[in-house]
């Protein structure tokens, strides 16, 4: 390397300089490399802050700076660093005196990036620097400026990448936890549904026996009943029927939630379930002296699950009876378009405030009212009704205002295969 000119050496060494690891606090390897062909006996790196200069690192430095050594700088010192044409300072120069440096001559090279100076390097030796040496040192210091800033930037990137990685890790962990919890919830839900289904099933058998035997007692085939006995047998039967209704609803909802409800479709005239449900509930209608009428505009065949359509009608009509005071009025209207059947169950009962119109179709929702004893209801009727309607690809909605009766409207496709 010594046989070549300093300029050639500098040009040759630049790629190598770019690959040296440096930071603002450690430039040792960098200076070691350039010191092989540019003669200097020591050098110091300073960072320029708004009102001070801060010593950062040195190479073979004879002055013992503390690592965080900072010097307050006055305006003229700034001028000295930035504006002086002189790149060589001797030990009489103000800066060298303030910094308390030992060599006879110093070459000053700015650390800058895109014209913005952020520090400087002072290369010192006992003899004066040649012009070639000054140019070479300037070129090498430019590489150093770039390397220091690159290192800072890559540190910022490293921090950001680490933050990103941590965030991704956290998200993944949260996702895993949620997955595990979801699994637990699903299996707990399954256990709950299976439990409800089996309990409901076990309850239905004795309830059916109670209803059946009270029916037999009422026939008085096995002996006459006194008035009191007849009254009690009737009470037993009514309560058992109510309980059976609740048990059936719980069984239905657990089947719905287990996705175990299947439609068994057949063709039937829409009037059939309407008339049958009305007849089934007639005793309750009569008991409350309600005026019940139904009107079927045109009796048509519908392809649907008969038992489920009956259940929809039963739930709507029993609600209408339940939430209509004595001597009230209920109308069932059935009409159809080319594609759909429209069933409306309208009463002039207590009605439902608009803000509850969506809510009432939710599970176990029962609104506050004085009409009906809540113990005999589960608040599942409309949930089941909505589910069964939607299983038929139909829709259900309510039109009502508080105190002004309610109209439940079900739209069912005539032919949904
Ligand atoms: N025709 C109606 N008029 C006024 N309020 C009604 C009517 N139908 C339903 N509701 C309100 O909506 C709530 C939910 O009805 P849903 O049929 O789901 O439950 P429920 O009748 O209380 O109990 P069950 O499970 O025995 O049917 C009722 O508690 C009642 O407050
Ligand atoms: Mg109900």
Descriptive report:
This protein starts with 5 loop residues before the first helix and ends with a strand. The protein has nine helices and 13 strands. 25% of the residues are buried. It has 417 residues and is an alpha+beta fold. The strands form three sheets. The chain has a six-stranded antiparallel beta sheet. Strands 8-10-11-13-12 form a five-stranded mixed beta sheet, with helices on one face. It folds into three domains: 154 residues, GAF domain (Beta-Lactamase, 2-Layer Sandwich); 77 residues; 148 residues, Heat Shock Protein 90, CATH 3.30.565.10. Helices cover 48% and strands 20% of the residues. Strand 10 and strand 11 form a beta hairpin. Magnesium ion binds next to helix 8. The site of adenosine-5'-triphosphate (ATP) has 24 residues, from helix 8 and helix 9.
Write a short abstract of this structure.
The protein has helices at 6-18, 28-34, 75-82, 94-99, 131-219, 227-257, 271-287, 306-322, 381-391, and strands at 42-48, 52-59, 70-72, 88-90, 105-113, 116-125, 266-269, 291-296, 301-304, 329-336, 340-347, 395-400, 406-413.
Itemize the secondary structure elements and their pairings.
Layout: H1 6-18, H2 28-34, E1 42-48, E2 52-59, E3 70-72, H3 75-82, E4 88-90, H4 94-99, E5 105-113, E6 116-125, H5 131-219, H6 227-257, E7 266-269, H7 271-287, E8 291-296, E9 301-304, H8 306-322, E10 329-336, E11 340-347, H9 381-391, E12 395-400, E13 406-413
Parallel strand pairs: 8-10
Antiparallel strand pairs: 1-2, 1-6, 2-3, 4-5, 5-6, 7-9, 10-11, 11-13, 12-13
Helix pairs in contact: 1-5, 5-6, 6-9, 7-8, 8-9
The protein binds adenosine-5'-triphosphate and magnesium ion.
Residues 249, 315, 319-320, 322-323, 347, 349-352, 360, 365-367, 369, 377-383, 406 line the site of adenosine-5'-triphosphate.
